[in-house]
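Long-time lurker. I teach an intro course on protein structure, and each term I like to show students one example going from raw sequence to a predicted 3D structure in token notation. This year I'd like something fresh instead of my usual example. Would anyone be willing to generate the tokens for the chain below so I can use it in lecture? Attribution to the forum is fine with me.
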Amino acid sequence: MAEGIFRQAVQGRGDFRVLSAGLGAVDGHPPSSYAVQAVRELGIDISGLRSRMLTPELVSQADYIFGMTHNHIDTVMLLYPQAAEKTFLLREFDDTLDFFEKDIADPIGGSYDIYLECRDQIEQGIASLLRFFEVHEGAGIAPMKPGSIAIGADHGGFELKEALKTHLEKKGVSVADFGARSNESSDYPDFAQAVALSVAQRKAEFGVLICTTGVGMSMSANKVPGVRAALVADAETAARARQHNNANILCMPGKPASLDFAFAIVKKFLETKFDGDARFVRRNQKIADLEK
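-- Reply from a regular --
Happy to contribute to a lecture. Here you go:
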């Protein structure tokens, strides 16, 4: 349904090539009768379309990849980490929806009404993402600026947060500060949630969270689906968190040995890439499966 609706939506808008592919799809299967009927009500014929598996070749060729659910996105990025910057949730561009409302459930096995609901959600998602790109002059600007950082701290990490923010901004890094705004007593889960949602919704590429020990921040941030928050106390662990675990949020204690020591940890975290070795992909997928 998504391929047919997307093709119609971009008709006459420019040179677009739209293909749908599934992570577990089998090549050559026709669409279900309910799917054909649902989009036929929109004047779209998908009866001639056939299923295809998502392959490395398709991933490489794509300018953008849009998934239906957060789990789809996590799996694509685990299997193809090189595609992370061009992979998005279809409905993440709709600001009227909260984090959990943005998933579009697979209608297979459901009633015709379920297919109609799925069709409408796909149509709304496509409309919202096209509006986004039109606002940005069709320049291919993603909602997330690669290298952007969401940062947050409670009173125990306030001073380090301020120092890190200044340090990163001087280096040209885009930093979104979610507080705290002072060293007055505050609750770390509030800041952990704000930063975690920013990363999970791909408004920021990475997050940095700081409290007195870093423990409360890491426990809180990891409650948000799609977040892999690592509590780190040295540069070597920061590198391993990225390389082996594909961590997207760095949690730190607020009183490091020195500012230079803290800066080195953040630098190592940001510059290290996820190793796409099959061992790490398998283990990270098992972590993602725990959220189901």
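Some talking points for your students: The chain has a mean pLDDT of 89. The radius of gyration is 21 Å.
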